[in-house]
């Protein structure tokens, strides 16, 4: 039976409220968006002595940073050798080296700052559902092992033992990875940034940006004008018309998630007994993990429209029972969704359409590690203007042709790929 929609994720939110503050006068850096990217950049910039103001249209954690599955995965969608083919040897190797350490950036920050963020670092499994997918895992394993990464292949028996699922022919274990409470992490990043002197305004949207006498003037929906030497637009999947062409350069998708009631001990021994989060190799993938209180949390792509009833999450319940038939009858207590941004080439994009106005967009399922690790780089760029501190090159914003029809096209692709996944072996 379908339960009511609770309207919020399962993640525990820290009890303390993050203090808001407005910095007097002009600032060195205005950050628009209080997600991982914006808050990490604000924290590191404030630590360097820059005068920083963060502004967020909603609350901390109400966007993708608080609504995701909490998987902290290093690397990118592309393997290192592919990055070199796309970007050239030097730039490709630079991005591969940077992406290799993105999970380190998250877990090192939690440890060094003593953040009260629930986390676990036992690795991440990429599960192969076909022999072709397993061949791709072999290639990925080879490339990362050559670079000294702590990774290994899993055969059919090993992946069954670690996941408790019997739907895979093998997989790949990346021990550099792990998982966190994503909502707690973004709230603690906000707390770190404000503790270092950054200002934070919530529930206030920037509606217009204008260049004015070597400064940027940001107008808000509350009639306020903020002046800054430089502006970081850290809105990613929630980008709108503020930056011409930015929203049209991204393909955004809805990521739907469910969480069960806490599982009894006998089921915990059979559902993800190894403790690692998992993403599978299907075209329309599902990803899942256990929460700190013993729930199974599962996510995947959903309808392009906003959900209308609990039935819009049924595809995840079907996937859960396909993988774990023993969970038949287990109550689903939480259902939620958020928006994620993809780029056509599956790479993060870094833009500076005008001097002093810059942004990064496109996470491809690696947002927690990628955007947190970018913080020091973006802060250094704001301080120095030296592009050499950035891990990948600045590129022009390139709107996707016929972007207005993206919902129809993406929905058709999702339906087609879901059908292929259903029959593929």
Explain what this protein looks like in three dimensions.
The protein is α+β, with helices and mostly antiparallel strands. The protein folds into three domains: 18-75 and 89-121 and 177-247 and 345-394, FAD/NAD(P)-binding domain (3-Layer(bba) Sandwich), CATH 3.50.50; 124-175, no CATH class; 251-342 and 400-425, D-Amino Acid Oxidase, Chain A, domain 2 (2-Layer Sandwich), CATH 3.30.9. It has twelve helices and 19 strands. It has helices at 36-47, 64-67, 80-87, 89-100, 102-113, 131-146, 156-163, 182-195, 265-268, 314-323, 367-384, 406-423, and strands spanning 27-32, 52-55, 71-72, 119-120, 124-128, 151-154, 170-174, 178-180, 199-201, 206-212, 215-220, 225-233, 251-260, 278-280, 286-290, 296-301, 332-342, 349-354, 357-361. Strands 1, 2, 9, 10, 11, 12, 18 and 19 form an eight-stranded mixed β-sheet that branches. A hairpin with a 4-residue loop joins strand 11 (215-220) and strand 12 (225-233). The longest helix is centred in the C-terminal third of the chain and has 18 residues, at 367-384. The two termini are 31 Å apart. The model is unreliable at 1-6 and 412-421 (pLDDT under 50).
Question: Can you give me a brief rundown of this structure?
Answer:
The protein is of the alpha+beta class and 425 residues long.
What is the assigned CATH homologous superfamily of the largest domain? FAD/NAD(P)-binding domain
Domain tally: 3
The helix fraction, in percent, is 25-40%
Q: Which class best fits the helix and strand makeup?
A: alpha+beta
Determine the number of helices (DSSP H or I, runs of at least 4 residues): 12
The number of strands is: 19
Our measurement of the CA-to-CA distance between the termini, rounded to an integer number of angstroms, reads 31 Å
Mean pLDDT: 91
Work out the strand percent.
15-25%
For the CA atoms, what is the radius of gyration?
21 Å
**Major sheet size, sense and barrel closure:** 8 strands, mixed
CATH fold field value of the largest domain: FAD/NAD(P)-binding domain
Low-confidence stretches: 1-6, 412-421
What's the architecture of the largest domain in CATH terms?
A: 3-Layer(bba) Sandwich
Question: What's the CATH class label of the largest domain?
Answer: Alpha Beta
Domain FAD dependent oxidoreductase: 28-380
Organism: Rhizobium wuzhouense
Protein name: FAD-dependent oxidoreductase
InterPro entries: FAD-dep_OxRdtase, FAD/NAD-bd_sf
């Amino acid at each position: 039976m379908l339960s009511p929609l609770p309207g919020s994720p399962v993640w525990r939110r820290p009890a303390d409220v993050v203090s808001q503050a407005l910095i007097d006068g002009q600032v060195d850096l205005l950050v628009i968006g209080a997600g991982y990217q914006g808050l990490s950049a604000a924290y590191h910039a404030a630590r360097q002595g820059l005068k920083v103001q963060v502004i967020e249209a909603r609350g901390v954690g109400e966007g993708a940073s608080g609504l995701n599955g909490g998987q902290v995965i290093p690397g990118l969608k592309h393997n290192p050798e592919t990055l070199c083919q796309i970007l050239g040897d030097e730039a490709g190797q630079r991005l591969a080296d940077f992406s290799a350490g993105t999970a380190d950036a998250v877990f090192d920050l939690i440890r060094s700052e003593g953040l009260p963020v629930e986390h676990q670092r036992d690795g991440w499994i990429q599960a192969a559902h076909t022999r072709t997918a397993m061949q791709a895992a072999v290639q990925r394993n080879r490339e990362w092992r050559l670079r000294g990464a702590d990774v290994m292949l899993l055969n059919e028996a090993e992946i069954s033992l670690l996941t408790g699922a019997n739907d895979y022919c093998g997989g790949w274990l990346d021990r550099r990875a792990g998982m966190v409470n994503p909502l707690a992490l973004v709230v603690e990043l906000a707390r770190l940034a404000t503790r270092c002197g950054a200002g934070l305004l919530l529930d206030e949207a920037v509606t217009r940006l204008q260049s004015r006498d070597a400064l940027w003037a940001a107008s808000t929906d509350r009639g306020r004008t903020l002046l800054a030497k430089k502006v970081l637009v850290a809105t990613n999947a929630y980008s709108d018309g503020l930056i011409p062409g930015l929203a049209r350069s991204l393909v955004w998708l809805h990521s739907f998630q469910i969480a069960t009631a806490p599982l009894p001990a006998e089921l915990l021994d059979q559902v993800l007994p190894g403790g690692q989060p998992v993403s599978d190799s299907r075209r329309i993938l599902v990803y899942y993990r256990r929460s700190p209180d013993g729930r199974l949390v599962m996510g995947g792509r959903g309808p392009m429209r906003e959900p209308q009833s609990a039935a819009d999450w049924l595809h995840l319940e079907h996937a859960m029972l396909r993988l774990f038939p023993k969970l038949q009858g287990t109550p689903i207590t939480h259902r939620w969704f958020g928006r994620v941004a993809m780029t056509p080439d599956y790479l993060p994009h870094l833009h500076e359409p005008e001097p002093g106005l810059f942004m990064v967009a496109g996470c491809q399922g690696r947002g927690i590690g990628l955007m947190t690790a970018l913080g020091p780089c973006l802060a250094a760029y704001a301080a120095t203007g030296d592009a050499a501190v950035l891990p990948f090159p600045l590129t022009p914003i390139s709107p996707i042709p016929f972007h207005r029809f993206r919902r129809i096209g993406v929905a058709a692709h999702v339906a087609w790929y879901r059908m292929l996944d259903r029959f593929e072996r």
